[in-house]
Amino acid sequence: MKNKLGEDILTDEEIEELKELGKAIEGTLVFGDPGGDGYPSRTNRFELLKMFKRYLEIHDYKIVKDKPPYDMLE
Fold first, then answer.
1. Is 66 contained in some domain?
2. Which of 11, 26, 4 is closest to 58 using CA atoms?
3. pLDDT for 43-64, tens place per residue?
4. Torsion of CA 1, 12, 16, 14, to 10 degrees
5. Does residue 28 lie within any of the structural domains?
6. CA-to-CA separations, 10 to 18, 26, 39, 57, in angstroms, rounded
7. Residue 32 lies in a domain
8. Is the pLDDT of residue 72 over 70?
9. In 1-74, where do the E strands start and end?
10. In the chain, is it the N or the C terminus that has fewer CB atoms within a 10 Å radius of its CB?
11. How many CB atoms lie within 10 A of CB 47?
12. What digits encode the pLDDT tens for the residues 5-47?
């Protein structure tokens, strides 16, 4: 959606989604460290990546995954 000056703006739905994503990201960072060593679990890291990806997509960034982060067969 564009405003009267032709600048890109976010819709109300996008703003609400950003708020929800922000809370989820913060919660995962705070509570996603089961060992308490500042390093989130693997599951939480991948969930964070999905949330960060969506957050950036709302701002019209295109995120492309070239390859898996690891190869299970190697």
1. no
2. 11
3. 888 899 999 999 999 988 988 8
4. -10
5. yes
6. 10, 21, 33, 12
7. yes
8. no
9. none
10. C
11. 16
12. 455 788 889 999 999 999 999 988 888 777 777 778 888 888 9
